[in-house]
Amino acid sequence: MNRTHARMTRMDKPMQQKTGRKPSITISETDYERLTGLAEALEDRNPEASETMMAELDRARVVRDGSLASTIVRMGSTVVYTADEGPEKTVTLVYPGDADIEKGRISITTPVGTALIGLKEGQSIDWAARTGQTHRLTVVRVTQAENAA
């Protein structure tokens, strides 16, 4: 029921995409299931984050857990990226309860976290910050955690 409502809500609103098509993304079955549940749980508390995450999940190619390339960002990945061709930043993509910006652990529910999921090394995506300003994020390097799905 929530997922249907989220789809209808997304269809009623224009996407915030201001430039070109978004790059293709690939997500593991486990991440897809967990992130879909998280997006549905966020629907009432944070509808914008829920909508953005559902839009990313809807366009993702979903693959078996063991067949996701190590160069693709998944939950638990440590990612080196640039924003607007600025200096490299290193973050680990985590669920909201594990986020700690001082330790470089960013939540999947943040605009950067949602933009990163499913991208592979060398890919870029335009994303809108909470201020509404559009930025270009480019994945430089991806390292997987020992227990990443």
Can you walk me through this structure?
With 149 residues, this protein is α/β, with parallel strands linked by helices. 30% of the residues lie in helices and 24% in strands. The strands form two sheets. Strands 5-4-3-7-6 form a five-stranded mixed β-sheet. A two-stranded parallel sheet has the order 1-2. Helix 1 (2-12) crosses helix 3 and helix 2 runs antiparallel to helix 3 (47-59). The protein is globular, with a radius of gyration of 14 Å. The two termini are 27 Å apart. The relative contact order is 0.20.
Strand order of the largest sheet: 5-4-3-7-6
Main beta sheet strand tally, sense and closure: 5 strands, mixed
Radius of gyration: 14 Å
According to DSSP, the number of beta strands is 7
Q: Count of DSSP helices?
A: 4
Kindly estimate the percentage of residues that lie in beta strands according to DSSP: 15-25%
Terminal Cα span: 27 Å
Low-pLDDT runs: 1-19
Give a short overview.
This protein is α/β, with parallel strands linked by helices and 149 residues long.
Supply the key terms:
149 residues; alpha/beta; disordered N terminus; two-stranded parallel ribbon; 5-stranded mixed β-sheet
Chart the SSEs and their pairings.
Blueprint: H1 2-12, E1 26-28, H2 29-42, H3 47-59, E2 61-63, E3 78-83, E4 89-94, E5 105-107, H4 111-116, E6 124-128, E7 134-143
Parallel strand pairs: 1-2, 4-5
Antiparallel strand pairs: 3-4, 3-7, 6-7
Helix pairs in contact: 1-3, 2-3
